[in-house]
Amino acid sequence: MVILAAAFLFFRAEQLFYEQPTVVRVTRNVRANGLHVGIVGVMVILWIAFIIGSPETFLNSQIYRALMTSIPYWGIIALPLTMVVIAGEFDLSFPSIMAVGMVAFFEVYTRVDSLGLAFAASLISGFLVGLLNGVIIVRLGIPSLIATIGTQFFWRGVVEVIRAGQGESMTFTRDTTLRNSLVNKVFDYFPAQVIWMVIVGVVVWIILNRHRFGAHVYLIGDNEDSARLMGVNVGLTRIMLFALVGLAAAFAGIIQSVDNWYFWPNLGEGYLMQTLAAVFLGGTSVYGGTGTVFGTFVACFIIGGIQPGIVAVGLTGYYTKLIYGLIITASVAMHTMMRKRLK
Hints:
By secondary structure, this protein is mainly α. The chain has one domain (2-342): ABC transporter involved in vitamin B12 uptake, BtuC, CATH 1.10.3470. The protein is 74% helix and 2% strand.
């Protein structure tokens, strides 16, 4: 439960069930309901198409267990990343933070032979790297897109220098509490990592919808100047958002490495496109101010199902990135048109 405790570390407990103003809450709920209906409709249509195209694959429960195993590797990051984008920012460094967290894990484990301390060190390192991202962006005034591109390359380089390009086996986690709690099967079917993804989703939903911090995130995304006039500490809020993404990235990196019995220094490199695609497909506006956790959660399973769906219906996997690109472009175009209509 370390990740849950860390997520609430900087939030006052008495603010947990903060109620937003009625007009703001109703307006946001109307928008959210429309987004939810749309994204669920997309998922249903896509799954029907896949079932018709390859019933032997998509009527088999094994495909769903496989999706629930692999999607949390990046879906856990997509959920807090939604908050960053709602605030009008971007974070492209999380793939490297996944690897940084695992380097910290091994550095501590080889010295103290404690999985618990190694796990904590990984989460703390991810949180601190994310915090540093936020400080660079807020204090130096560098656009988050540019800053996190730079820090992604920097931290990947740090990992490769420390590890000298060498991976590490994770077989020492066999039959340990760490492995059993993170990736074992629940009820002999559900991978534990999808349960953790649900837990992270609930935490992020509470922060966004029942906590003053979440109200500040939406205010910043809607209008930063207005948020400042209302007394919101815009800089601190943004810094904390990047720290939470770093925390989630480290946690996801542990899950992926433990589940696959191995850590590679290039951990996370394949997760950038689908994570961003899930956030945008889920209804989060690239301009900020709009987005929901539920939308991102559902979109993760849509994006995660695209590659096996494409292969199952007879196409090659090369179409996957093409479709990811189309989804991101179409989502941005849609929000741009909506933004122009509202002006």
